[in-house]
Write a structure and sequence with these properties.
The chain is 38% helix and 17% strand. It has 396 residues and is an alpha+beta fold. The protein has two domains: 1-273, no CATH class; 302-395, Aminopeptidase, CATH 3.40.630. Helix 9 (200-215) crosses helix 11 (234-244) and helix 13 (356-372) crosses helix 14. The mean pLDDT is 94.
């Protein structure tokens, strides 16, 4: 059985390289760099939270300097990426389209039986889009019978649109306002897309390869997570891939627990970290699994927008700040777009020694982050290191 023994430091290098965070512009610059990034990661998560710029744009901008928001829309219009689900919704390379089919089949077979009214509404929605072209939820009449009970309490026509999307009978793009636009797949898919449904084994192996390419080193539960909507045998297939040598086991010195896995291609790759600074989204691929942050980076991180206000330690939407292979701080920030001001509610530094280079790196990254959020200035409200904040302000 293939196995490689690594120190935590060596493991961090592989993980950061796999995540595209070994240095600024690891995939280059411009729109083509965005395509390369999405091709490599296989999935960039979309989230609706707009406290700062949305997660998918944030994740890309962290890796592609001078990123422009319209580039994702351009790539989608060119048929090079599409939006759909793995463990959440996000942007996926178009070459992986066939691997979305098992997920769609799973949504279709796993849903509750529809009422006649629900079936009729879905048929009417699909017919209207077939005749009129792409439509948004607001293009359908207000058909709510009961008062809304919450954020995800959609009205019937919105539910119908989402069901048709999840089952693959509709696809979506986005307006600049972030509203979904629903259209027939034939109007969105480029010519020559592979529409063949993969076998279960093909799908399982795709899940393993995609996860390990993006995460570098991962536990089985992390690999399986991206297939959580499909009844599959990813763990069994992972074991076969280890026996065949396509995947190897990884042992991290001083780290005990479940087995870890990696691709052999990362075993002999010499990764050098540039020591660059990154302000990351809470939904970045590096931050998705809290236990990974603790195990490999000794950083106990949690996005607290899901935590009751009274129990929050660092703020509603704190952003991890990474320098080289160390998480040095977390920044709870909000973009006041009317005043064009980035408000830093709390900049909390970890208990470690900060060098002048680190402080300068944070200043540069923060200046870029202010610009990225279409703001002109930054205001600091709270920090556990006020003297460091003053140095950062001087460096901006």
């Amino acid at each position: 059985m293939n196995k490689v023994v690594l120190t935590k430091g060596e493991a961090r290098k592989i993980i950061l390289h796999a995540a595209g965070l070994s240095r600024h512009a690891q995939f280059g610059r411009g729109k083509e760099a965005v395509q390369k990034l999405i091709e490599h990661l296989g999935f960039v998560q979309i989230d609706t939270n707009y406290v700062v710029e949305r997660a998918h744009h944030h994740a890309i901008a962290s890796r592609v300097p001078d990123y422009r928001l319209e580039w994702v829309d351009d790539l989608q219009a060119e048929g090079r990426i599409f939006e759909f689900w793995t463990f959440a919704t996000g942007y996926i390379p178009m070459r992986d389209f066939r691997f979305s089919l098992p997920i769609k089949q799973s949504f279709l077979s796993g849903r509750k039986p529809l009422t006649q009214a629900e079936s009729n509404l879905m048929r009417k929605v699909l017919d209207r889009i077939s005749r009129e072209g792409p439509l948004m939820a607001r293009d359908f009449e207000y058909d709510r019978v009961k008062k809304s009970s919450g954020w995800w309490d959609w009205r019937p026509s919105k539910v119908a649109l989402e069901r048709l999307h999840l089952e693959g009978r509709l696809m979506t793009t986005r307006k600049k306002s972030f509203e979904k636009v629903y259209d027939l797949p034939g109007n969105i898919l480029p010519p020559g897309v592979d529409m063949s449904t993969p076998t279960l084994q093909e799908y399982d192996r795709h899940v393993v390869r995609r996860a390990l390419k993006a995460m570098g080193i991962a536990y089985a539960k992390e690999i399986v997570f991206s297939s959580r909507f499909v009844k599959s045998n990813v763990k069994a297939e992972l074991a076969k891939m280890v026996e065949e040598g396509e995947v190897c086991r990884a042992e991290i010195t001083g780290l005990k627990g479940s087995p870890l896995y990696m691709l052999p291609a990362y075993m002999d790759r010499k990764v050098t970290l540039a020591g660059d600074t990154f302000i990351l989204s809470p939904f970045d691929i590096l931050n998705v699994f809290r236990h990974r942050m603790r195990d490999f980076f000794d950083f106990d991180y949690q996005v607290e927008c899901f935590v009751p206000k009274a129990k929050r330690k660092f703020g509603y939407f704190s952003l991890p700040i990474l320098v080289g292979d160390k998480f040095i701080a977390r920044m709870d920030a909000k973009a006041d777009r009317k005043k064009r001001t980035l408000i830093v509610h709390n900049l909390h530094f970890e208990d470690l020694s900060l060098t002048g280079r680190m402080t300068a790196g944070v200043a540069e990254a923060l200046a870029n982050f202010v610009k990225f959020n279409q703001c002109d200035k930054v205001v600091f409200e709270k920090s556990n290191q006020r003297s460091v904040v003053k140095e950062i302000q001087k460096g901006m």
